[in-house]
């Protein structure tokens, strides 16, 4: 009881009761006090708790049951929903909740049990059955929601306080699951129907996706999705795609098959988004990938990879990589086939002598193509890039020495004057690509020998396209192989620079001579160790040239005492003035061509023997020279009889009727061409140098170790030598050193060597 603090004045309450329609009394308090005075209310408790009217519980339940029945039968409810809610609240307030909960559950259970009859009809086809099941489920859900809204107070008080009791919604699900979905016949027909609809859709037919979505949602809500549907669905999917994979691998080519697999995966992902449960995604996609991809990986790659790579099918190769990356073991399998393809295709380029002419260009094109595939299709995967490098290194060294030689010649063709196919930027790009191929080569000394020979010709005959390009290539080689590799090549450039300075001084010297010469002489002074070795050849020079040579020799040795000059006519060249009927021309010719042509100032016609005797040119070189003058494009000599080859009995005379649109005509391209002898001697020189390097390496190792077994010595040699070498060749060099007393065998252990100081 609450009391006012003022003791003199009290407020009194009278309780008025008013009967409500549901039989409960509603109390209201009316305060009376004297007007004008401020009072505080004092609320007193009921002395006795109001009692429920007789039969109130039973009457109220009848009302509620009628309402539930009306909801279940989709008829109108006689009572106000608020009134019904209030009735439930009143019953709960008077501890009738357990009875009310049981009664409600029983009513719902009776109704659900009655629903099973409609699913017993055998005449229903599968689709009609599914629609009826869906309608029943939708009705059940709607009814349960409405019933719960009336019994909400029960749900939020009694049920909430008893953790073991399911809520009204959960009770509804449990009843539907127990009495309808768990019925074996009903469940089988439902799942069969859903699987049939999915199979129809997979076969390209249109189905009611919302129906399937609703029914699968029902199975999921009832917590039977996994056991009743998913397991069977995955078994059916597995069966379908296993058969489809086998069939289509026989019928279709690989690109077409890949597009089919991608489409199937897209369709299945769409099904997951549309109506399947998210938990099905992983096993479903795994199943499709396994049956359409995993089971056929090797067959697909054997059947289609080389075709796709040959045809540069970039789109399909991208798809192939994407799909294989999804399957366990897919990328390692693809990597192995990719590596084998490169080795096979590249090996064919390198090991087919008929293709030598185009080998380097083919290698560059092939490398570009594979780079493009690795970058755009295989998303720059490090494993694939490394496998490509390894494959290139393997096949390019299958044929020793030849690729290195041809790469050097290819570089020569690009750096030579007259190569108008490339701008400076393009040339730089080509050189960069060449260096990538060059990296794969083991015998880089072969490349160096041929590159040096060709560089010498370009520099001495004045056929280098660009000094900048030459030096750029040199810096690339230096960066790749170190300063020792390019030291001699750099020495060649230094010699050319020094020669220019010497010639300026020589020209000044000649101007001071009392008898100036009518021949302008240019000499290149070459340091013997830097340049390729040339076979000395004695030829018969005209007296004017011999005299000029002596003048230069005296001039040079006067400045550099103690040096020895050896004239090398092979790469000499000259510009001759000639008169024809058409008029005067200038002929740019080699020194050998010069000696032959000058003979025709002294006579009309000469035989091969007469020319050989007069010039002193070696037999093979003379035939090449005469062929270039009488059988080439610019025929300044006539050959009798006519023909492509020079024979012993042929005679030559000056072609006075020679015509050409240019004033200066180049006939000395012959000097740039490589003879068979040159090619053989360069290769032999490389092998000779290798023997010296092996000998030096053996002595160096033995001097440091003093005693070593054969196997350890060979192993050490492989680590030190920078070119490929066979064990048999190493054994021969070791035997040679033993014979020359650089080392000796152990008397007791023949496989043991000792250094001999």
From TrEMBL:
Give start and end of each Cullin family profile domain.
402-630
GO-annotated biological processes: cellular response to UV; developmental process; DNA repair; proteasome-mediated ubiquitin-dependent protein catabolic process; regulation of protein metabolic process; rhythmic process; ribosome biogenesis
Work out whether the entry's keyword set contains Kinase. no
Quick check: keyword DNA repair in the entry? Answer: yes
Which pathway does the protein contribute to? Protein modification; protein ubiquitination
Record-given protein name: Cullin-4A
Which superkingdom is the protein from? Answer: Eukaryota
Q: Which family does it belong to?
A: Belongs to the cullin family.
Task: Report the Pfam families cross-referenced here.
Answer: Cullin, Cullin_AB, Cullin_Nedd8
Q: Record's SUPFAM superfamilies?
A: Cullin homology domain, Cullin repeat-like, Winged helix' DNA-binding domain
InterPro entries referenced in this protein's UniProt entry, alphabetically = Cullin, Cullin-like_AB, Cullin_CS, Cullin_homology, Cullin_homology_sf, Cullin_N, Cullin_neddylation_domain, Cullin_repeat-like_dom_sf
Q: Which GO terms describe its cellular component?
A: Cul4A-RING E3 ubiquitin ligase complex
Going by the UniProt record, its keywords in alphabetical order are:
Biological rhythms, DNA damage, DNA repair, Host-virus interaction, Isopeptide bond, Phosphoprotein, Ubl conjugation, Ubl conjugation pathway
Indicate the transmembrane segments per the record: none
Q: What is the lineage of its organism?
A: Eukaryota, Metazoa, Chordata, Craniata, Vertebrata
